[in-house]
Amino acid sequence: MKYAAFISHAGEERKLAVKIVRILESFGLKCWISRRDIAAGDVYGKDIINALENSHICILILSRLSNSRPGVHNEIERAFSKRIPIICLRVEDVQPSKELEYFVSSVQWVDAWGNQFNQGMEYLKSAMAKHMPENYQFDAERKVDHEFQETLSEIFLLKCRKGVTATFKPLATYLSDQKKVRVTPGSVKISGRGPRLKFYSVVIPPPESVGSIVLGRSPGDPRGQISHAEITRKHAVVKWLNRELCICDNESLNGTYVNGERLTGDDSIALRDGDRVQLGPVRMRVKFL
Predict the structure, then answer these.
(1) What is the distance between the alpha carbons of residues 162 and 171, in angstroms, rounded to a whole number?
(2) Any alpha helices (H) in 92-221, and if so which ranges?
(3) What's the rounded Cα separation, in Å, for the pair 23 and 27?
(4) How many C-beta atoms surround the C-beta of residue 115 within 10 A?
(5) 3-state secondary structure of 184
(6) How large is the C-alpha radius of gyration of the chain?
(7) Which of 6, 12, 127, 172 is found 20 to 30 A from 241 (Cα to Cα)?
(8) How many beta carbons lie within 10 A of that of residue 84, not counting itself?
C-alpha cells in the first residue's frame, strides 16, 4: 500500500496524532501511524523504514516533546536521506531543536495550534496535495454503518451465489473455535462478524474472575483479541462496575459504537443483553450467559 503520509510524533502526544490522522483520512489521505500500523511482535525499525519508503510525504508534528525525542529525530533523518518531502506541522509555538533544524529549516511549515488548528489542517491538506502524484487514489471517507442491516441468513444466501466454499469455510472455522472456548456461568459473550464474513468472538469472564479486559488487534490479553486490520491494537476496554459490564473507547482510530452511538472521550456505557457493539467495521452482539 502507498500511504499519503508517514506521521512522526512524540509517543506522549498520541491522542493529538490520532486526531490529526482522523482529519487527514476524512479527506481521503491515507496515513501511516505507529499506534495503529505496527502489530505486536513486528520489528519496529524495519516497519518504520518500510512505511517511510511507501509514503509520499513525511509529516513532523513539531512540539516541545517531539523536539527532544531521539526516535523522532531518527525518523526525520531517514525521510530526509530518502528524499521524502517533509512537512513540519507545528502544534506549539516552538522552533526546531538543533537535531531537527538541519532537516526542516528549508521545508514547508504549517502552524496549527490554538484557534489556528482548523485553518492549519485545511492548509496542510492543500500542502500535501502538491506532493501527491496525479494518479494517487484518494480513499473515500469510510461511512460507518451502525445498524445490522443484513441478517446472517441473507449473507449466506448472497455468498452461496458466489461459491459454497467461500461462504461456509469461515463459518465452520468460527464454530470450531467456539467449541474450544470454556464458558463460565455469568460470563458475557460479544460476537459477530467483520467484512468478508469473518467471525469474531470474545468471552468476558464473570466479575469474580476478572476486573477488565482490553479489546483490540493485539491487546496483550489473548481473551480480548480481535484480529482485524482496522481495529486499533488496544481499541476498547470492557470492565465490571458494580456487577455491570461497561465498555469505553480507548482512543481508537475507527471508533467504538454501542447501538449506533459512538463513544467519545471517557464515555462509558453499561451493556445489556442483545446490545449491538461495533469496533471499527466489526459488528457484534452482546449475550449474557
Answers:
(1) 15
(2) 98-104, 117-129, 152-162, 164-180
(3) 7
(4) 7
(5) coil
(6) 21
(7) 12
(8) 18
**Architecture of the CATH domain 3-129:** 3-Layer(aba) Sandwich (3.40)
pLDDT in tens, 230-249: 888 899 999 999 889 999 99
Is it the case that residue 226 has pLDDT exceeding 60? yes
Q: How far apart are CA 54 and CA 32, in angstroms?
A: 9
Q: Read off φ and ψ for residue 3, nearest 5 degrees.
A: -90, 150
- Which among 261, 253, 260, 259 has a CA at the least distance from the CA of 280? 253
Rounded distance between C-alpha atoms, residue 3 and residue 29, angstroms:
8
CATH fold of 152-288: Tumour Suppressor Smad4 (2.60.200)
Q: What is the pLDDT of residues 249-276, one digit of tens each?
A: 988 888 899 998 999 887 889 999 999 9
Q: Which amino acid is at 87?
A: I
pLDDT value at 142 more than 50:
no
pLDDT of 28 > 50? The answer is: yes
CB atoms within 10 A of CB 9: 28
The CA distance from 197 to 159, in Å, is 9
| Residue 210's pLDDT band (cuts 50, 70, 90) | confident
Q: How far apart are CA 103 and CA 277, in angstroms?
A: 45
Q: Where are the domains of the chain?
A: 3-129, 152-288
At residue 229, the pLDDT reads 83
